[in-house]
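Kindly go through the entry underneath: sequence plus fold tokens. Please state briefly how this chain folds according to its tokens.
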Amino acid sequence: MVELDDAFKEVLKQMSAAERLEDCLWELESQLLSQFQAERFTIYQKDANGHEIVSMYRTSRDAVEEIRLHVSPASIAGYVAQTQQSLMVDDAYDSEYLEGVNNQLQFDHSFDQASGYLTEAMITVPIIWKEKLVGVLQVINNVKGGPFQDETYYMALEVAKLIAEKFRYELKTGRGPYDQLVQDGRLKLDQLEDAETKAASTSKPITEILRKDYEITSEEIGRALSAFYQLPFHNYAEDFKIDKALLENLNKNFMATNYWVPISNDGEKAVILIADPSNEELIMEIQNIIRAVYCEFHVALGEDIHKYLGIDVKGNSKMDAFTNLDTLIVDARGLDISADAKKEEDDDILNQDQESQVIQLVNKIIAKAYNDGVSDIHIEPHKGAAAGEVRFRVDGVCRTVMKIPASLMRPAVSRIKILSNLDIAERRKPQDGKISLKISGKVVELRVATLPVVNGESAVMRILAAGDKAMPFDKLMLSDANQESVRDFIANPHGLILVVGPTGSGKTTTLHAILALLNDGERKILTAEDPVEITQPGLQQVQVLPKAGYTFAIALRAFLRCDPDIILIGEMRDHETAGAGVEASLTGHLVFSTLHTNSAPETVIRLLDIGLDPLNFADCLVGVVAQRLVRTLCPKCKVPHKPNEELMHRLKHFYGEEYYPELKIDEETIELRKMGDKPTCDKCLGTGTRGRVGIHEVLKGTTEMKKLVAKRAPVAPIRDQAIADGMRTLMQDGIWKIFKGSIDFEQLQRVCHH
């Protein structure tokens, strides 16, 4: 072990004195890089699934916004995470050396390709606490060139050790309601971790373990829960009796299983005790069940709720056995669902008196999802006799809404497969299908995907409301500069315009908003989509059927024989489709399409990588719009606040000091918006967010950009040129929307990493 110099010890001292890891890294980044004599470093944390590591802090800001790696030899950091052994590599591209370490070890160079950065020397060390992996620290490229010195390796070990000891809790993928006990000094972090481990292994409530093993009182637990959930805490009182009339017509098993109970209700306001106030879907169900103008929620211990219900806590594990269908779902009163595609549109749903329990279950799940504005329904089995669960995705976030007894899981998935004309006997392979149905007289389509998993078979249904209108262009919340750029794009008579982003980022919505501007009756517009989600009068829209051999490429070539002016091709998935799109744009057509890429500059590289001719692509490129969706603050309960100096400093830093003046922010009078403290807000159900808004970056196909594309330039110069041409990054556009009061920094960071 080498002796570490005083300057490095001082950096460690400052890190140790910091309260939060990210804050101290942000402040000490340049000093750490100087001590490491490195160009970059990255800190990974384990993902919630435990099978991946994901970058939680990176010194670089390139086109790759997030690095996500499997815990496997498929990458150097993934290998270190798997083996929990440090690794020094002099040249990441030396495959012979890597094979000598492990015959499966590889360097994942895809991020170099995406960013245009060349990785050479690497030091990768695991961050370990109590023999468990917490994360990985990776130091990249000696500033002097060549391999790192041993001294840097020992420095990396010390930093990893400090992170494990002091900041390990920050590397956890979520925060818990009992952190306050640690912060108050009432409980040590080690003790809380031990209590969580014991609770998981014994299936006992952690509150019971905290009280018995660590002598934490109910009042202390209550204060922590109240601080975390921002709700009043209700402690159990022997002399407090719940009026039996409150529990009439309520399912006691459902309340016990989900840990909630009403303690008062005068018709105007109902007071509800609940053990998990973060379960927004359960809160929604309770509000539908309880007959009151509004519900006020108080947090309480699960065992106390059982006491009020008169249930012995020891009988906990038996509760699921008594849960019937009515406890699983909110009654779909007054809803019409018809899944028989052969029926006439005016036919009624199957008579529920004649339906089986499973048919009712599936119908009501779909009805509830449609009424709640859900985009995707996830039906997921669990191991053995454990109940499966139904999760709804709303505003991009999945949450559990109900449990399904294990005995009903396979029949429920089979029912879904019958409705979507899939093979119910085939459970070993994934299958895709569609369901056409009516809800309250409106035709709705669901895209269905089944997947064999270790615990059975899961199903995902995406709700596609047929006939939805295109969103008005001015509702896309484009900045003035981006809106002007897009209008300039579509003024071109021919060329290629791309809208890119991950699945579910609103690409189709943006494209149809743009097409609505062009849909003036004077131009022939053809679209090939999979599926057709939004329809517009005046557009000729085609549903491609890849399984039947009707692909995007075939549809596009057919379009060229139909005298179109404008063509929308749903996705450029392969060289054939992309090549046909370029060919169409070069022969006098304005072509729109999408691609699954992380940023606008990366899109150019991706299309070149799949084999497009650089000269032809450069010639036809009009522009690229990249986007993400960010959860917006609830318009009803968001409140103004004066940003502190630290937040303003961060916003300036991430927007870029050189560009910040263009926002023309008056820091003396500026007010931002944040989540309010109204847990019963009827708009957002106490979540603080309602709906989503797009953040965008727009790359223009300028003359200088076309020259770079023709030369197959890497991402970095393409990004630099795009910025010089006026592009502002997703992060910058998000910060602009923070100043506009639509979102906050926390929501922006969820989708846009620095």
